[in-house]
Amino acid sequence: MVVLSVLKWIGIVLGWLVLGLLALVLLILLLVLFVPVRYRVGLRTGEEERFSYGIHVTWILHAISVRKKLDEDSIVIRILGIPVSRMGGSAPAGEKAASGEPPDEEEEILPEPAAETKPDPPDEEEEILPEPAAETKPEPAVEETTDTGPEEEEPERIPLISESEETPKKGPISRIREKIDRMKSKIRERIKKFGFLFFRLSSIMDLVKDSSVRNTVKKLLKETVRMVRYVGPKKITGTLEFGTGDPASTGLILGGVSLMRTAHRKGVSITPNFEEKCLVGNCELRGRIRGVYFVRMAIRIWFDKEVRRLWKRYRRMNKQVKKRQKELSL
């Protein structure tokens, strides 16, 4: 009975742990799908200063944030306000001191050089003795030996190929034949490449000519346009002053800009300069993105019969092209 009761409590604890893990996973999934990712982009340019941009992306009440300031080159990733990663640039001195990081080599404070001290002159009583010369060992005498015996004759060298024989030179006819053979091989390779390209283009044209394929492509383009509109900024504020130095071209650009919907938003000010050549602007873009939108879009595309039929035809065409490429390579 004691063992059974222990096993029962162990099972209850493990069950609650499993339920807790499942609830945690479900909570994280719901947060990823429904809690929006908010972003803010700042752009600034002027006559004297270069173009600069800033990014600030936050999620779950700034619990996770990615930030790049306008005046800095580094991108800082923070979790619960603690910087965990830095990409590009260098951290400011205050953050380095707080985090305990060593300062850069250029910022190291070097000690002041000590005053130059001249060495004391040697005492008269102390004589500076010359250093002893390095001991040199005497070279051993070379004993002269006189061989009275007969000198050994060197064996005669037998050449593998007689020096008199020379490699036969190719005649002009054989050289012309080799050039012709090389040209033929190059022409065959070019013909194979052109044939493969023609086969690939013809298969693509057959796919594009189908009316169902064109309707499917139109659907995909509509979904792409919707996604761009959803991801785009919801609020735009800023000022812009531009001029090309020529009143005619400046007016032409102003007419094109006035046709855009963004130019008529509240908080946007566009001023043309018909006298000078300039480009001065300062604007801010704000928006938010939810993950559930991309899940819905993927489900709509995947369960569309025409899209799946197009995907199958494309895979079949790709297999035929690869098969033809292998045949030509052989």
Structure description:
By secondary structure, the chain is α+β, with helices and mostly antiparallel strands. 45% of the residues lie in helices and 18% in strands. The protein contains seven helices and eight strands, in the order H-E-E-E-E-E-H-H-H-E-H-E-E-H-H. It has helices at 2-34, 93-99, 172-209, 211-231, 247-258, 291-302, 305-329; strands at 37-45, 52-59, 64-68, 75-79, 82-87, 235-244, 268-272, 277-289. An eight-stranded mixed beta sheet has the order 5-4-3-2-1-8-6-7, covered by helices on one side. Strand 2 (52-59) and strand 3 (64-68) form a beta hairpin. Helix 3 (172-209) packs antiparallel against helix 7 (305-329). The longest helix is centred in the middle third of the chain and has 38 residues, at 172-209. The radius of gyration is 41 Å and the shape is extended.
Highlighted features:
330 residues; alpha+beta; 7 helices
Strand and helix layout:
Blueprint: H1 2-34, E1 37-45, E2 52-59, E3 64-68, E4 75-79, E5 82-87, H2 93-99, H3 172-209, H4 211-231, E6 235-244, H5 247-258, E7 268-272, E8 277-289, H6 291-302, H7 305-329
Parallel strand pairs: 6-7
Antiparallel strand pairs: 1-2, 1-8, 2-3, 3-4, 4-5, 6-8
**Share of residues in helices:** 40-55%
Pattern of helices and strands: HEEEEEHHHEHEEHH
Give the strand order, joined by hyphens, for the main sheet.
5-4-3-2-1-8-6-7
Largest sheet descriptor: 8 strands, mixed
Measure the end-to-end span: 77 Å
Q: For the residues shown, what is the average pLDDT?
A: 77
- Our Rg estimate from Cα atoms comes to 41 Å
Structural class: alpha+beta
Strand content: 15-25%
Q: What global shape is seen?
A: extended
Number of strands: 8
Tally the helices: 7
Q: Which parts are unreliable, with pLDDT below 50 for 5 consecutive residues or more? A: 103-119, 121-138, 140-152, 159-165
